[in-house]
Amino acid sequence: MKNHSINNKSIEEKKIEFNTTTNLLERLKQKEKELKESVESLNSLIDNCPLAILLHDKEGKILKANVVAERLFQYQQSELISINLFNFFSKGDLKLVKSYYNKGIHEEKSGRSNKCEALIKNKYNKWINIEITSGLLKIKGSSIIESYFIDVTERKNYEINQEVLLDQLVASLEFKSKFLGSMSHELRTPLNAILGFSSILLEEIYGNELVEEQKDYLRDIISSSNNLIELIDIILDLSKIEAARLKLDVKKFKLLLILEEILSIIKPSCVKKGLDFKIIGIDENTYLKADPLRFKKILLNLINNAIKFTEKGSIMFRAIERTDHWEFQVEDTGIGIEKEDFEVVFREFERMENDSSKPVSGSGLGMTLTKRLIQLHGGDIWFNSMSGKGTTFYFTIPKNFIYK
What we know:
alpha+beta; Helix Hairpins; Heat Shock Protein 90; 3 domains; 5-stranded mixed sheet; 9 helices; 12 strands; 21% strand; elongated
């Protein structure tokens, strides 16, 4: 009885062991099936991906390539798996690429890009610029590198062309600046002679007494010559700004002194038109930190522009001290600006068309230069205007402007 019990127990134990083994085998078969399906799924994804993909190890041994990779490298998969990946790269990029595969592909986790750009040579010795993006795969306990290759040759050529064009543009601007600098000197010489001799004739120092009509002609010559010299100066300054060659001489100065110089220049024009000129917010203790010569040019351009388009009334210059900057205003009671002309005020070689105004002289560059000079000082300029009611130009200069 005892022995029979033992034998029965032994049979039960064997059944349990058998069932356990069977379950284990079934689980292994299921795992193998799942792994096979995963591999098939991975292969399907790789084969159908629109990017060139290579599976390889850390040493560069290629394990698999998709159709797009075959087209990129111009090798069949059977050929690719017999070639080490690193043999495709240029010698100049090889060190970078090996460093990338040893370390760079892990950098995405640290927030850094895990991309690499390099040159590869295909089967027919054609060099191709590529961008590589890689990641690690765990297959059967082994680490496999999955690399995506994108042909960026066209983009690289575009970038190179852009750099070449930029260099050409810079060279062109420098040439233009040098040319204008040279030409300004060549043009000034005869203009100074014209101005000098015209002034002598007008003063009747030499020769016979002039009739009034002759004097008018000489005044026109002098006025036109001065306008031409001013135009030359504007073009020269604009070309220097474009070529980043115009340097500001920033210093602290008394604003009232600049205004006195401007008043002496604009007084004849104001008297001729019967215009009042008012100054508000400025006294002996008003100081400004800027380039005095350029600031004078800014203010003179704005005031002359106001006088040009104002036939009666007044011109007012106002200074307002803000927390971190000065705000300046030039207000007139002139013809104003039509809304359709707002966009052309600061545009080069464009002038406002106003049916209510008589023709006025100008190159369309004065306001362009004014804006550029204000921006060089770290400031801004804008305006408010109503047709027939006048215009107010506003501009700012930072108090603690630091010129670099």
